[in-house]
Write a structure and sequence with these properties.
single chain, 378 residues, alpha/beta, 13 strands
Length: 378
Amino acid sequence: MKYFISAGEASGDLHAAALIGALRAVEPEARFTFLGGDLMAAAASSEPLIHYRRMAFMGFSEVLRHLSDIRANLRCALQALEQERPDCLVLVDYPSFNLKLARRAKALGIPVCWYISPKVWAWKEYRVRSLRRYVDCMLCILPFEVEFYRRHGMEVTYVGNPSLEEVDRKLAALPSHERFCASHLIDVTRPILALVPGSRVGEIRNNLPIMAAVAARHPDLDPVIAAAPGIDEELYVRYAPGIRCVAGDTFALMANSVAALVTSGTATLECALIGTPQVVCYRANGSRLSYSIMHRLLHVDYVSLPNLIADALVIPEMLVHLCTVDSVDAELSAILPGKPGRAGQIEGYARMRRRLGVASAAATAAQMIARLAHEHRK
């Protein structure tokens, strides 16, 4: 069987790599053409058609600056799709780009499977019409997505959440607290406060100063910054002078911390699955107008994945102009050891885990994708 897989960012590369491994377990002779990264390359034993580093443009201004690159990438992907004529096109999130591939595949008679649904339940709900038209098999990793799609007349399957498996695997291999501290020259006697300000320059610029100011109010805690790959350490020094950085070890940092301040994103789910109490910080430009516009655009009650999955306010969300030193400090103080809010958040994490279930996402998805491909071959 021939599979064409498109993943346009780092998280997609991670999940698609696991999927390639699961497909190989089902079909050892499976062949892959893919858009993705180094993890997919290792799993497929071949190089990507386009590396996601040439695709991961975020925000209106960045997309506008790279329009020619985006169009060139799309032309390359569409030409490869027509030449390869795979038995199945597998799309991983990344909706704006991948929807165009889905439309062409449908015209060519190639079955389309979408693994990890785009977040149309949060914004751009109108895209459901296109998904219904071009996608043969939608595989979701968030349990509440099933009911959302059903309301739109589209049957989808929840296959489990890959982050749950990844976190549990990493937790099982985690070194001791003493070894972690020694490897990063951290004082083992002081409780750690993890500062996770995001992976983009704008996120770090907006959120890290707030986090650092909050940390300064807790001299008994040792603040440590989770430094993102590809970000110059000078940026962290500029916005949080004197605070230690740990690069390439965010998971272990969150697991070894008593609490965390986390910029909204997939890190909030990982932190919740680890079991470390947290406060979500998302300053953006900090204006009330931005907050008002955001709430009009969003179709959900929460923005962080733990709250969305639990369908309750498990972790506090300090968004835009609400993300101030005073408000974040108040929420952090409520979840520190010995404080009443800590037990409530940990119980919320347990409720979230129960909702995620125990299914192996990659293995379940691989079975369904292989079945779709075989049916097409008949």
